[in-house]
Amino acid sequence: MQDAPDSRLGAVGAVDVDSVRTDRRAGPVARVREASLLLREILDLTVDLEADVGAELDVNRRDFEAMQHLVMSGPLSPTEIARRLDVSTAAATVIVDRLAAVGHATRQPHPTDRRGVLVVPNPASVERAMARILPLISGVDGVLDDFTVDEQGVIAQYLTRVVGVYRAQLPPRS
């Protein structure tokens, strides 16, 4: 069942500060501006898009996350994949096994560590993933063309600060 639109949204797209309520499912809800609601929607849509691309590539969410790292960084050691995904090396091995089984990655000897292995993304898989992701990246970047250089600077400044708020909520990485 869909909730009715929130009648507390004002002309500027903010929840009225006087109508703070407690929802049993969501907890306290305070004044939220339209830009913050839109950022939340972007996060939700990103999860949906990643799930869709992962399904198209026949991988689960965690495997797709590993693929993203391989696509963006190139060959990585299983230990580095484990670190980036914040999983055990055993879990990373299982992820790499699944990616190899469906042809998205191969294991190759490390060029400088004769005991080491690198997980190398399959170029055809990279191409398939990028065919879905690049239009999104280009489209989002193209939206900036509708703004002046000064407005683009303000947008970048806002997003930089939002990134800082997000990072401040995470524990320090070891």
Task: Describe the structure in brief.
This protein is mainly alpha-helical and 174 residues long.
How is this structure best described in words?
The chain has helices at 34-56, 61-73, 78-85, 89-101, 123-143, 149-168; strands spanning 21-23, 27-29, 105-109, 117-121. Strands 1-2 form a two-stranded antiparallel ribbon. A two-stranded antiparallel ribbon has the order 3-4. The chain is globular and about 55 Å long. Helix 2 (61-73) crosses helix 4 and helix 3 crosses helix 4. It has 174 residues and is mostly helical. The model is unreliable at 1-24 (pLDDT under 50). The termini are far apart.
Topology:
Elements: E1 21-23, E2 27-29, H1 34-56, H2 61-73, H3 78-85, H4 89-101, E3 105-109, E4 117-121, H5 123-143, H6 149-168
Antiparallel strand pairs: 1-2, 3-4
Helix pairs in contact: 2-4, 3-4
Determine the oligomeric state from the structure: single chain
Order of strands, widest sheet: 1-2
Low-confidence stretches: 1-24
- The rough form would be described as globular
* Sheet having the most strands: 2 strands, antiparallel
Helical element count? 6
Mean pLDDT: 86
Terminal Cα span: 43 Å
Rg calculated over all Cα atoms: 21 Å
Q: Encode the helix/strand succession as letters.
A: EEHHHHEEHH
Please give the share of residues in helix.
55-70%
Number of strands: 4
How much β-strand is present in the residues?
Answer: 5-15%
Q: Structural class of the helices, strands and pairings?
A: mainly alpha
